[in-house]
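[agent] plan:
  1. take the single chain provided in the ticket
  2. run structure prediction with default settings
  3. attach structure tokens to the ticket
  4. add a short note for the reviewer (M.T.)
[agent] executing step 1
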Amino acid sequence: MKRNIVIATVAVAALIGGGTATALAVTGDDEAPVKRAGVQVSDDERNEAADDTDGETGGKNEDKNDADDDDTGTDARDSADDTDDADDADDKAEDSAEAKAADVTAADAINAALKHRAGTAVSADLDDEGTNLVWDVDILTNGGKWYSVQIDPGTGKVLGSHADRDDDGDDAAETEQIRAALKGSSVTAAEAAEAAAAQGTVTSVDLDEESEDKAWEVDTTAADGTGSDWRVNPDSAKVTADRSND
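[agent] step 2 finished; step 3 output follows
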């Protein structure tokens, strides 16, 4: 269950003379503006594992004078494979840099958000807003209202929060479905994050309320940037690999 923030906008402005990008999100009428996150990831950090990944493209045109068409086709396929490998390296480098930059764990971010806004945490995601990272935690209150709370991944401080409203008319039905999935569950979102932390740096925790076997879905990133998906049992906290995308 990935809820979209529909009343926040993000403005990015470069500071003259400093060159540093500053992100500012505007929240609901009853909340203060979101402060700038203290954790930033530079382009160098994002691409540290992909310095030499400018894969060759257009191999088919470059090999017009090859001895035969088979060689030309092989070279083109090799060039495409190199490009795919380069893209994968770029993605892993970016994921690795972001995971390493977050000093505050998913569990700590969730707990910090719940201290700010009482309720039940349903999801937490490490999001990048330009060069800034922020933990975005969705909370369902006992009264059935949704709030999104932003946590600084460097300090654990609350950057801001706002009411998260759905305009598609399905909010009430979705809320009831989530309440039903949580009913009787003994494992919280924070505990699910802690259970999966042994698999890597947790970058996302989300309740899967739609499948028959309800679970917490957890994404982790290894030191080399490899991402993995896990399912955490909401009653036993048992961690298993998520094979739904295989």
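[agent] step 4 note for reviewer: The mean pLDDT is 76.
[agent] ticket updated
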